[in-house]
Design brief:
Mean pLDDT: 93
Structural class: alpha/beta
Radius of gyration: 23 Å
Distance between the termini: 38 Å
Strand order of the largest sheet: 1-2-3-5-4-6-7-8-9
Number of strands: 9
Helix content: 25-40%
Length: 465
């Protein structure tokens, strides 16, 4: 079954992305032999440009969400497919989208335990082996692509399966965000910096808003004012609701910084071009009291209702807000993807909040009956000791808060970095537009040069054998 997508690529350029949706059977557990269950993961394929005699496979390592969203927003792969005569494959991560091992019970505590990066990579390895015809001597070079957690997976795929993956483009991959590797406040310091670049007054107003919000939210009359003027779906009834609202607002600012693209986008939520600059116009100048809160109300409307489809602000959805269905990520963050976060209130624009691993671990145990293994990912995938790896490009944009956990200096001749000065979250993988800064255009050129090199190496090695 072919599905066709026609959407604006910005700048009066329309793109038609078509793919076939397929299913592939994988073991529930790749690493044990006691359970023999299998289930299907979804993958999307486009081979209209493919040279089936020797053309490469460009493989997107799906991350925490439905794979169609990543296929739609990874225009770089689509744009280079014809030149390389490549087959495009976008694989969905187990426990996301419709790739659910136990159907609608998959995220229950008794079933979620097979949600790990290692299991997902093994799914992808089996799928590529199938696409290669299960040959002892694969014919097609495979380049992995991924952004964010998908970028981490692309790099880990090359590290763990170098006989299967020829090279990897790992965009905005925070592979250093694990405990003890970077300061826990680095993420929100970069968020604050992105807002300060847009407007220093904006940062000052956000910083002073937290005490005002809590003051208003604790009084019945002013709390109702927030409910009405901010168009909140639910009233603020107690201290728990106040904390949830504050967390939602902080997440809003973090998301705005992360997807601060130079063009309108609906990747995570529908937003205008350069959304940080847009929202900061409502928080300019000296504001206090109702005026400050009215400005934040306008920011909320940009974030939650730019497309005009929302009747109210559903602040209780928290991190689940938006287009990405990433319900399983909280479990991964409670097991192997431990990324400490904290704020100081001095070097950032948020309330002070320390990183408390003990509390974090107990909360995870309460929710999932598991305790985190904070060193697991570093031990499994190398942390900052990647000198034995090869054929990986780590790209990071300096506007992206996740750059704090990214690799910014090349490790070797074949594990290299690309720093995009004015780039947001994996902007280099997005569809190209007339608004792209020169640095992202240069990054894509470097990606193509590395792909050329990897394909040449694969073909030369294949000829020798």
């Amino acid at each position: 079954m072919w599905k066709y997508f026609l959407f604006l690529c910005i700048g009066s350029v329309y793109c038609e992305y078509k793919y076939e949706t397929k299913l592939f059977k994988v073991p529930l557990d790749h690493f044990g032999y006691q359970r023999n269950e299998t289930f299907n993961i979804k993958y999307l394929v486009n081979d209209e440009h493919w040279d089936s005699s020797s053309g490469p496979i460009f493989f997107y390592t799906g991350n925490e969400g439905q794979i169609e969203l990543f296929a739609k927003h990874t225009g770089f792969m689509w744009e280079i497919a014809a030149h390389y005569r490549a087959k495009l494959v976008f694989a969905e991560h187990r426990y996301y989208g419709t790739s659910m091992p136990f159907g609608n019970k998959s995220l229950d505590n008794e079933h979620i335990g097979y949600l790990t990066a290692a299991q997902a990579l093994a799914d992808y390895a089996d799928l590529i082996d199938f696409l290669q015809g299960e040959s002892m001597h694969p014919r097609y070079p495979v380049v992995a692509f991924g952004g964010s957690y998908g970028g981490m997976l692309a790099a880990y795929f090359r590290i763990k399966y170098p006989h299967i993956i020829t090279g990897a483009i790992a965009a905005s991959a925070p592979v250093h965000m694990y405990p003890g590797m970077v300061p826990c406040d680095v993420f929100d310091r970069i968020v604050t910096s992105s807002f300060k670049v847009a407007n220093a007054k904006c940062v000052e107003n956000i910083k002073q808003s937290w005490s005002l919000i809590r003051k208003y939210a604790t009084n019945a009359t002013s709390s109702e004012w927030l409910h009405k003027n901010w168009k909140l779906c639910d009233p603020i009834k107690d201290g728990k609701d106040i904390d949830v609202l504050v967390e939602f607002l902080q997440s809003m600012y973090e998301t705005l910084a992360m997807v601060n693209y130079p063009f309108p986008s609906d990747f995570l939520v529908s937003l205008p071009a350069r959304p940080v600059r847009v929202v900061c116009q409502y928080l300019n100048g000296t504001l206090d009291g109702d005026k400050l809160l009215e400005g934040i109300g306008k920011v909320l409307q940009v974030f939650t209702n730019y497309d005009g489809k929302s009747s109210c602000v559903d602040y209780k959805k928290g991190s689940d807000y938006g287009n990405l269905d990433a319900s399983g990520w909280d479990y991964q963050a409670c097991t192997e993807m431990i990324m400490p976060m904290c704020t100081t209130g001095r070097d950032d624009m948020f309330e002070a909040s320390s990183w408390n691993y003990t509390k974090y671990a107990e909360d995870c145990h309460t929710k999932y009956n598991v305790y985190p293994r904070p060193e697991a990912a570093r031990i499994q995938y190398g942390g900052d000791r990647l000198h034995a790896a090869s054929n990986i490009v780590f790209s990071n944009g300096l506007l992206d808060p996740w750059v704090g956990g990214g690799i910014l200096n090349s490790i070797s001749k074949s594990v290299t970095t690309v720093v995009i000065i004015d780039g947001a979250h994996h902007l280099d993988l997005m569809p190209s537009t007339p608004y792209d800064p020169a640095t992202v255009q240069m990054a894509r050129t470097i990606h193509r040069q590395n792909i050329d090199k990897w394909l040449k190496e694969f073909r030369e090695q294949r000829r020798r054998h």
